[in-house]
Write a structure and sequence with these properties.
The protein is α+β, with helices and mostly antiparallel strands. It folds into three domains: 107 residues, Beta-Lactamase, CATH 3.30.450; 77 residues, Helix Hairpins; 155 residues, Heat Shock Protein 90. The relative contact order is 0.08. 47% of the residues lie in helices and 24% in strands. The strands form three sheets. Strands 2-1-5-4-3 form a five-stranded antiparallel sheet, sandwiched between helices. The protein has a five-stranded mixed sheet with strand order 7-9-10-12-11. It has a two-stranded antiparallel sheet with strand order 6-8. The structure holds adenosine-5'-diphosphate. Adenosine-5'-diphosphate binds next to helix 8 and helix 11.
């Protein structure tokens, strides 16, 4: 292989790498680059001969290039561009070419990883916070029992009841967190089959009937008995339980929860509507996020974990569908599960 061929191959390799590569000569002017670097840093101009300081205004980066050019030293630095929108780990090292020395920098973009790290940390801190609240209550009531409350015949059972409720809350939180992490790790497989939607909804109504009655609410199914959808029955049930349960929780006393079905060509749409106070537009875009709750205290009081809708969305997507919400203030909300249509 001659020198030219070797260069061609090297150029091709560099141009297909996702990492940005820049070479700077001893006057700190750009003498080499790959496609990724051009589109990231110099989209509309020719890089050749441009001062690196015109292209990337970053003191640390310039010092790193100087160290490589004048002292032959390697450096590892962090670089942020576009007002912190994009972040890179940059490795700068001397590049000895015959008798002249230039410097080469590899830019590894970490924007996405950094964002994921922030999400992960927020998730962890949310979990800790959510677990601490019931735990604090349990500890306080155990202490009360130890300090004589156990002999207080008129209250000791009530204290135990509080402890039990909080322990149950921790239990359901942990179950939801585990469920969500299993789904996110791709460990939950959906196995769609032909599902009788009407029967599923009737079963859910039976299970949640007592809760609805305690709030004087009506549950109405508008599903034709002949309707079949293509879904993992257990997972579909789980999604609908979450939505119907929410509708009961957040509707007004005496309200009506209606489940209906509609085929829209290639999509089957299952809707759960309530007659509650509705959801403000600024919350609509976020309520499917983990732990996002409009009224934290109210959600907790109702035994909510703030994870139900996130689970619904994930499960719908596992079916190659989606979940969505619409709401009219003062009239109620409609949550929809959209599934790829069942073709008869
Ligand atoms: P939670 O455990 O709090 O029910 P979800 O993830 O199921 O958690 O719901 C997130 C938030 O979305 C709820 O806390 C509530 O503020 C809002 N929400 C969900 N369903 C309804 C509904 N049918 N009507 C009004 N708000 C709702």
């Amino acid at each position: 292989m001659d020198e030219n061929e070797r260069r061609e191959i090297l150029t091709a390799i560099l141009d297909t790498t996702r990492e940005c590569v820049l070479v700077v000569d001893k006057e700190s002017r750009i003498s080499g680059w790959n496609e990724a670097a051009k589109s990231a840093f110099l989209p509309n101009v020719s890089p050749k001969g441009r001062r690196i300081s015109e292209v990337l205004r970053d003191l640390e980066l310039h010092d790193a290039f100087k160290r490589a050019l004048h002292e032959g030293l390697e450096s590892e630095i962090r670089l942020e561009i576009a007002a912190g929108e994009r972040k890179f780990d940059v490795h700068v090292s001397p590049l000895d070419l015959g008798d002249s020395r230039e410097a080469i920098a590899f830019f590894y973009e970490t924007t996405r990883l950094d964002r994921l790290e922030v999400v992960r940390q927020e998730f962890l801190s949310n979990i800790s916070h959510e677990l601490r609240t019931p735990l604090t209550s349990i500890l306080a009531f155990v202490e009360t029992l130890e300090d004589g409350g156990i002999d207080d015949e008129s209250n000791n059972r009530r204290f135990l009841g509080v402890i039990r409720r909080n322990a149950e809350r921790m239990n359901s939180l942990i179950a939801d967190i585990l469920e969500l992490s299993q789904i996110e790790a791709g460990r939950v497989a959906v196995e769609p089959s032909t599902a009788d939607l009407g029967s599923i909804v009737n079963e859910i109504f039976t299970a949640l009937g007592a809760k609805a009655r305690s709030r004087e609410m009506k549950l109405i199914s508008k599903i034709d008995p002949a309707v079949r959808v293509f879904a993992d029955v257990q997972r579909l049930e789980q999604m609908l339980v979450n939505l119907v349960d929410n509708a009961i929780k957040f509707d007004r006393t005496g309200g009506v929860v209606t489940v209906s079905y509609e085929n829209r060509g290639s999509v089957d749409v299952i809707s759960v509507s309530d007659t509650g106070e509705g959801i403000l537009p600024e919350h609509l875009g976020r309520i499917f996020e983990r732990f996002y709750r409009i009224d934290r205290a109210r959600s907790r009081e109702m035994g909510g974990t703030g994870l139900g809708l996130a689970i619904v969305k994930h499960l719908a997507r596992l079916h190659k569908g989606d979940a969505a919400v619409e709401s009219i203030l003062g009239q109620g909300s409609t949550f929809r599960i959209e599934l790829p249509a069942f073709l008869q």
